[in-house]
């Protein structure tokens, strides 16, 4: 029975490898192939891992997922797909990137990649502890577990090939600034913003080195977006007129500069890898400042409820006044963009960077 199972796994692997070789060579540079996409991060790229852990940071209930495959609330923090899905599609691997903890995962799902992201996580380990979610260290342990499963299934050689040729995306850090630093006293007594962003950048660099040591070679890292302009930050820190929080945005920009230089150093030290810095801060600011250019009308409120504060469990089927036209909105809830905004932003950030992964 066991040998038959292994035979099925190997057949699946061979089939998918052939299929991907045929498909991926269409638009990717130099006839390159991408067997799988792996994503690490927070709620922006969590497709539902938090459904299977004990935390209040969940969204596996309506109206989340209202526009996702028949209105299915999968645990994605949006009305539809999230960037992890869009990225897998852009690299021509698959249209939906599943959660690693999804008990319904099939072999082909594993072979072509998963998201290990956990909503509420941060570079700062304290961020994950406060939210009772899975830290980057936990996510890396899941990746090691994944590698063992793949080695058992398809052999060490095939597993190593999948790992070395795959795309790795890291998208995290917003919660460190918006929640841990801005909303709790724990880090403010230890750090000012320059030293806290130093701490974050050192954690980011350490994680990227660990990912390299585990075999990752094509690694893209999103910087922190304009976190001070999300509706909840406007409500909490934007004053009477709900302006963008300059404090949060300045902290994000400071961290982003440090992340950029950390990645430059990693690129020099590991010349056999590609470390691709993905700037979403400036494109997102452009979308917020010029919404009509991208087909949006509302930038200061989310679609869910009042749009000023609802997120996660506060955004639910009983939320009054949830909009009927999310495509007019940049934000779905008070913290996360709509599917349409994610598509627009992913195009602005990724399309001219795909070549840099190869």
Task: Write out key terms for the chains shown.
single chain, 4-stranded parallel β-sheet, two-stranded parallel sheet, 11 helices, 6 strands, signal, hydrolase activity, acting on ester bonds, SGNH_hydro_sf, GDSL_lipolytic_enzyme
Would you give an account of this structure?
The chain has 358 residues and is of the alpha/beta class. It is built from eleven helices and six strands. It has helices at residues 2-24, 83-90, 107-111, 125-131, 136-165, 174-183, 193-213, 231-237, 246-269, 281-289, 339-350, and strands at residues 37-41, 167-171, 218-222, 274-278, 298-302, 329-331. Helix 1 crosses helix 5 and helix 2 (83-90) packs across helix 11 (339-350). 51% of the residues are buried. Residues 1-8 and 18-26 have low confidence and may be disordered. Residues 1-25 form the signal peptide. InterPro entries: GDSL, GDSL_lipolytic_enzyme, SGNH_hydro_sf, SGNH_plant_lipase-like.
Strand and helix order: HEHHHHEHHEHHEHEEH
Derived structural class:
alpha/beta
Largest sheet: 4 strands, parallel
The Cα radius of gyration reads 20 Å
Helix coverage percent of residues? 40-55%
Number of helices: 11
User: In angstroms, what separates the terminal alpha carbons?
Assistant: 40 Å
Uncertain runs with pLDDT below 50, 5 residues or more? 1-8, 18-26
| Principal-axis shape | globular
User: How many strand elements?
Assistant: 6
Strand portion: 5-15%
pLDDT averaged residue by residue: 92
| Arrangement of strands in the largest sheet | 1-2-3-4
């Amino acid at each position: 029975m066991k040998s038959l199972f292994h035979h099925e796994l190997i057949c699946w692997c061979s089939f998918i490898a052939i299929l991907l070789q045929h498909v991926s060579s269409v638009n990717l540079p130099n006839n390159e192939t991408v067997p799988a996409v792996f994503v690490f991060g927070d709620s922006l790229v969590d497709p539902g891992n938090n459904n299977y852990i004990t935390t209040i940071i969940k969204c596996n209930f309506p109206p989340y997922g209202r526009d996702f495959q028949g209105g299915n609330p999968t645990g994605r923090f949006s009305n539809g797909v999230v960037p992890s899905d869009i990225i897998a599609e852009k690299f021509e691997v698959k249209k939906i990137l599943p959660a690693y903890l999804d008990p319904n995962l099939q072999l082909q799902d594993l072979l072509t990649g998963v998201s290990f992201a956990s909503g509420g996580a941060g570079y700062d380990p304290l961020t994950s502890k406060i939210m009772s979610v899975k830290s980057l260290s936990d996510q890396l342990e899941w990746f090691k577990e994944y590698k063992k499963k793949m080695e058992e299934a398809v052999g060490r050689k095939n597993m190593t090939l999948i790992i070395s040729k795959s795309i790795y995306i890291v998208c995290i850090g917003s919660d460190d600034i918006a929640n841990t630093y801005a909303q709790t006293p724990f880090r403010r007594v230890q750090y000012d913003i320059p030293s806290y962003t130093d701490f974050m950048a050192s954690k980011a660099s350490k994680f990227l080195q660990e990912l390299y040591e585990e075999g990752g070679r094509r690694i893209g890292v999103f910087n922190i977006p304009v976190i001070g302009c999300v509706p909840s930050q406007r409500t909490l820190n934007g004053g009477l007129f709900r302006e963008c929080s300059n404090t949060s945005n300045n902290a994000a920009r400071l961290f982003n500069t440090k992340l950029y230089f950390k990645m430059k150093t990693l690129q020099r030290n590991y010349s056999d890898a590609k470390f691709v810095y993905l700037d979403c801060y400036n494109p997102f600011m452009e979308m917020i400042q010029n919404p009509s250019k991208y087909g949006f009308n509302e930038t200061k409120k989310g679609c869910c409820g009042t749009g000023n504060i609802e997120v996660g469990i506060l955004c639910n089927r009983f939320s009054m006044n949830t909009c009927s036209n999310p495509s007019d909105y940049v934000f779905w809830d008070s913290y996360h963009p709509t599917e349409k905004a994610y598509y627009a932003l992913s195009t602005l950030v990724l399309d001219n960077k795909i070549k840099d992964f190869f």
